[in-house]
Write a structure and sequence with these properties.
Length: 494
């Protein structure tokens, strides 16, 4: 297919109907330097590409598989091999058929083998195929960047890495150096590199989800080397022990969430937590960096006192024991008589927050183990020297989400329920008392009378001559005579 095919694929990837699935572009190098990967009968190059495509692309994804070398008049690059929406039942056959016909490319009008331009290929994938939209760009290469047969591959590789580190579209970049010894009629090689570039934040989320799923690790068992970013998620924290925190229990969830289970009556203002601080920036050694930490929880932003203030010579994957004094926002937690506590009786009130660790004055360098591995896979290649992180990356941070669950017993709720029933009983007694009829005995001028009344009533009392001589006032608590006429002979009872 010609450039028109690539443009047609770009239209497919950019179509509004494809807005939900993340589009993926797979760039397969077939320049002259790749000759042994195509001519050696034992080469696993095409099989590796096919398995990565099948592992990475999910049904419904918009997929573009393209070969690349260097674009020349009459020989466009990249050149689309397959452009379609992934369907599970036909995908393997389509990818295999597209790769079967691929061979080492030649320059137009002669037998000279095609040169390589890594930057051109990645730029076309981002700008044309994805149209600067979110997605993943995969690059399969022997890592020799030599447009126009330029032998200054070190400088060309620097240009390529500058595109990675300074390209605004590339949010995350990983590299997988793989051992694949091949020998052809002209060249031989020990290995190749698989790059994946996440475009924009959505692409980074899709790449993280792919790595979490484990699908890619079934094909590529090597750990990915991080190229970008080098200022985020550089370390991880894992709690190992908690001291001086009665009523507080810490645990680490499978999702990486730190959980603190707090009893409602806990009043420990601080907790001494022992951690393992792990360097998560393979293949970089943290030569030196300052350490600082803080917690943001229940509306409070508090510093965390650390047992050490600097880290040095921390190899990738290595850990450093770290003690910290963390102040829990007990005063800001809901009281046991609060509405939140009553509503959560028998369960817990959940508060979300985070612990942030900052590395300042950060100095990174490639680990010796990685340098040795790269030298074995790419002998004479200047890659390890240009794998050095950009000078402007001098700080980084890592966030550890924390979930505080405050557990409340049933006693406050039961007490509240009891109080409610008592109030209802009192109201019922009041209603009965107000409506129940009563009789009272009165003696008026020696005459015994029986008067019917009820609480709240005021009744006038008359003598035998019909004159008003008093008023009978009835309450819940008894009867009283008021407004007595002077000289009248009226009393309660006989």
């Amino acid at each position: 297919m010609r450039r028109a095919a690539l443009c047609a694929a770009a239209a497919l990837l950019a179509a509004p109907a494809r807005a939900a699935p993340v589009s993926q572009v797979f760039l397969v190098q077939n320049s002259g330097w790749m000759e042994p990967f195509f001519s050696d009968p034992a080469s696993q190059y095409k099989a590796l590409v096919a398995e990565v495509v099948l592992a990475a692309a999910r049904p419904g994804d918009a997929l573009l598989l393209a070969a690349f070398n260097q674009s020349l008049p009459g020989a466009p690059s990249p050149r689309a091999l397959l452009a379609e929406t992934v369907a599970r039942d036909t995908q393997r056959a389509h990818v295999t058929a597209a790769l079967n016909g691929l061979d080492t490319a030649q320059k137009p009008g002669g037998a000279a083998l095609a040169d390589t331009d890594l930057g051109e290929a990645v730029g076309a994938a981002i700008g044309t195929a994805l149209n600067h939209r979110a997605g993943l760009v995969w690059l399969f290469t022997n890592n020799k960047n030599s447009p126009n047969n330029d032998q200054a591959t070190a400088r060309r590789n620097r240009d390529f890495y500058q595109l990675i580190h300074q390209g605004a579209d590339i949010t995350k970049a990983l590299a997988f150096p793989l051992r694949m010894p091949v020998k052809g009629a002209r060249y031989s090689a020990n290995g190749l590199m698989v790059y994946v570039f996440a475009i924009h934040a959505e692409g980074a989320r899709e790449l993280d989800a792919l790595l979490r799923s484990g699908r890619l690790q079934k094909v590529i068992t090597e750990a990915p080397a991080r190229l970008k970013p080098l200022d985020q998620d550089t370390v991880t924290l894992a709690p190992t022990k908690v001291e001086d925190a009665p009523g507080v229990a810490f645990s680490m969830g499978a999702d990486g969430m730190l959980r603190a289970d707090v009893q409602a009556d806990a009043r420990a203002p601080t907790a001494k937590i022992h951690w393992r601080l792990v360097n998560a920036m393979y293949p970089y050694t943290i030569v030196s960096a300052s350490l600082a930490a803080r917690s943001v929880l229940a509306g409070e932003d508090r510093p965390i006192a650390l047992g050490v203030e600097r880290v040095s010579a921390l190899a990738p994957g290595a850990s450093l024991p770290l003690a910290s004094l963390m102040q829990l926002p007990v005063a800001r937690l809901p009281g046991k008589w609060s509405g939140a506590a009553i509503a959560a009786a028998g369960s817990a009130v959940v508060l979300l927050g985070s612990i942030e660790v900052r590395l300042g004055e950060q100095r990174l360098e490639l680990s010796q183990g990685f340098r040795q591995r790269m030298a074995a896979l790419f002998p004479g290649d200047p890659l390890p020297d240009i794998f050095t992180p950009p000078s402007q990356v001098q700080g980084s941070r890592a966030l550890l989400p924390i979930e505080v669950r405050v557990h409340y017993g049933m006693a406050p709720l039961l007490a509240l329920i009891g109080a409610g029933f008592a109030l209802l009983g009192a109201l019922a007694a009041l209603a009965v008392g107000l409506t129940r009829g009563r009789t009272v005995l009165l003696t008026v001028e020696g005459e015994l009378r029986t008067v019917s009344t009820r609480a709240g009533m005021r009744q006038p009392i008359f003598d035998q001559a019909g004159r008003r001589v008093a008023e009978l006032h009835t309450t819940l608590f008894g009867h009283t005579l008021t407004d007595l006429r002077e000289g009248a002979q009226v009393r309660l009872g006989r």
